[in-house]
Amino acid sequence: MPPCCSPTTSAVTAAAASPGASRSGGLLRRSRPAPAAVNCKKIDSLRSINGAPPCIPVSNRSLLTPVTLPVFRDPNMRNDTRLRIFSGTANPSLSQEIASYLGLELGKITIKRFADGEIYVQLQESVRGCDVFLVQPSCPPANENLMELLIMIDACRRASAKNITAVIPYFGYARADRKSQGRESIAAKLVANMITEAGANRVLVCDLHSSQAMGYFDIPVDHVYGQPVILDYLASKTICSDDLVVVSPDVGGVARARAFAKKLSDAPLAIVDKRRQGHNVAEASILVLCYLLKQCSQPNGCI
Fold first, then answer.
1. Beta bridge partner(s), residue 205
2. pLDDT of 77
3. Where in the numbering of this chain does the Ribose-phosphate pyrophosphokinase N-terminal domain appear (predicted)?
């Protein structure tokens, strides 16, 4: 019987039945009176929790029933969905359009820069156990936007987000995917390692410079193509395929341009032979027109 329950008559009876001393085996032994149980006034002073009466421990045997504790919720945690979309400073309008299309609101986040140029990021709402999407392209200034993305990923990871997806429509350093000369770095691989080590679980990119750059990541990569959007736009303009010519800016983009031309009813294909004289300097020396592709595939076809 817990001490906070009502007193019983058995304890009083046991104390009154003993005269105070008894002899057993020639030894004098005093009997101690059993302590009387008292009422616990703290239970009576308990107020209702969350509009319901508290659960008071009751004992019929020797086990106590558990006490019902109030449930506390984080006021910053939204109950509608576990999906969160946060925007960096690179392209907030794109982030807003994505959130509006999904019927969501952009997550509250504070991003500012100190006097020495350091970036400060703080999430203004809880993301514990949430699927977080960070929209931040690494467009110019590439280094600023990339570092901002890394700090955003780290903030979400330390806030116990369940999954973190970096949405990078323009992936900076994607052109540095190989060594064209000796003693060069492969910056695309370095950036992929930085994003992975920061804590991202998945990356979503659009139209990488080369598809093999997806292999630089040790996490899943979703490569989204902009071709369907352009095709829908051209279809809305009702342009005849005879008035179209698909041009590849260099030899490396021939496969992509050929696939694009095939979707446009086998539109003519042109290839530019681009020669680079230096960084950010390109010269188009030869324009190769493949206008008679269908005729070339026939036995008697020729150019």
1. 168, 223
2. 47
3. 83-199
Kindly tell me if the per-residue pLDDT of 229 is higher than 70. yes
Domains annotated on the chain, with CATH: 1-72 (no CATH), 83-224 (3.40.50.2020), 238-297 (no CATH)
Cα distance between residue 135 and residue 123, in whole Å: 14
Give the DSSP letter of residue 52: B
Please report which confidence band the pLDDT of residue 277 belongs to, taking 50, 70 and 90 as the band edges: low
What is the Cα–Cα distance from 244 to 138, expressed in whole angstroms? 32
Most confident region among 71-80, 162-171, 289-298 by mean pLDDT: 162-171
Residue-level pLDDT at 44: 52
Question: Which of 188, 186, 224 shows the shortest CA–CA distance to 203?
Answer: 224
Spatial distance between the Cα atoms of 263 and 295, rounded to a whole number of angstroms: 18
Q: How far apart are CA 23 and CA 119, in angstroms?
A: 86
User: How many angstroms separate the CA atoms of 254 and 248, rounded?
Assistant: 6
170/204 Cα distance (integer angstroms): 10
DSSP 199-264: T-SEEEEES-SSGGGGGG-SS-EEEE-SHHHHHHHHHHTT--GGG--EEESSGGGHHHHHHHHHHT
Query: In Å, what is the CA distance from 31 to each residue of 2, 12, 14?
Result: 23, 13, 10
Q: Which of 63-67, 99-103, 142-146, 240-244 has the lowest mean pLDDT?
A: 63-67
Question: Which comes out higher in pLDDT, residue 69 or 81?
Answer: 81
Kindly report the pTM of this predicted structure.
0.67
